[in-house]
């Protein structure tokens, strides 16, 4: 009996050690977001990317929503002090705070999305070619427009939104040189009412296809388009399910890929303190299916969109926006 008990005790001890070792190896990843995970665009995309990485890499995760500019540094500091192995700031506003504090926590990797910041030993950024996505979005918008007027509504004129806006304008004119492209900024990422108001104004001026970049402000644009029966091109997160008869397609920004790549490189110890820039070639941006609009777009025009994306991948499109 004693021998049986001793064997059982030994087995239990080994199992306990294995569990402790597994717990110690489990990567702790925190995501700091400037808006809510329910915005259906910028923040939703990052949160779903975090959840996918959690399942794939067996992570211990945490996140903070609705982080203001003033709270950016303190939020990242808090997670670093709590021993998180990776702290991801989702947005350009986290670049300077991360640069300021990263050296104080050499065991933590600081990752910033939609920014171009990097510094040894433990600060890297993952950015996407928003301008390329905007270019294809504008091309599609001009393709489906009946009035010859389309519009873009941005939250704030930050680099990635400016790149998207510029790409949207150039892509639209590639398909139809005389297309009229309206553009305006909300002055906020979060003001749904203002986003809707500006969009309604554009629709009154003839825009029958609109697109928006921001956080909750994008919701206002989709609401306006839906109410007025015009079309919309989504951005960042494929949210066609929320307005299937309004959203033609989405210029998807693959934040899930950004996060997956960052975690994969960190776990394999191959990450470098540099900016990783991802476009169509790297699947960092993509075009969502046309879904409810599929039957309304000719096979010829679908082929043109596919060819445009292939040409972008091959470096054959000369007027893509420059990366800011």
Q: How many strands in all?
A: 12
- Major beta-sheet overview: 6 strands, parallel
What is the strand content?
Answer: 15-25%
Taken in chain order, the helices and strands follow as HEHEHEHEEHEHEHEHEEHEEH
Q: Could you say which structural class the secondary elements and strand pairing correspond to?
A: alpha/beta
Please bin the fraction of helical residues.
Answer: 40-55%
> Could you name the ranges where pLDDT drops below 50 across 5 or more consecutive residues?
1-24
Chain-wise SSE layout:
Layout: H1 2-25, E1 28-32, H2 42-57, E2 60-64, H3 72-81, E3 86-90, H4 95-101, E4 109-113, E5 123-128, H5 130-144, E6 149-154, H6 159-175, E7 180-185, H7 192-204, E8 209-213, H8 217-228, E9 231-236, E10 247-253, H9 255-267, E11 275-278, E12 285-287, H10 299-313
Helix pairs in contact: 2-9, 3-4, 5-6, 5-10, 7-8
Essential attributes:
alpha/beta; six-stranded mixed sheet; 10 helices; disordered N terminus; 44% helix; 324 residues; six-stranded parallel sheet
Describe it:
The chain is of the alpha/beta class. The protein has ten helices and twelve strands. It has helices at 2-25, 42-57, 72-81, 95-101, 130-144, 159-175, 192-204, 217-228, 255-267, 299-313, and strands spanning 28-32, 60-64, 86-90, 109-113, 123-128, 149-154, 180-185, 209-213, 231-236, 247-253, 275-278, 285-287. A six-stranded parallel β-sheet has the order 2-1-3-4-5-11, sandwiched between helices. β6 (149-154), α6 and β7 (180-185) form a beta-alpha-beta unit. α2 (42-57) runs parallel beside α9 (255-267), α3 (72-81) packs across α4 and α5 (130-144) packs parallel to α6. The longest helix has 24 residues, at 2-25. The radius of gyration is 22 Å and the shape is globular. Mean pLDDT is 93; it is low at 1-24.
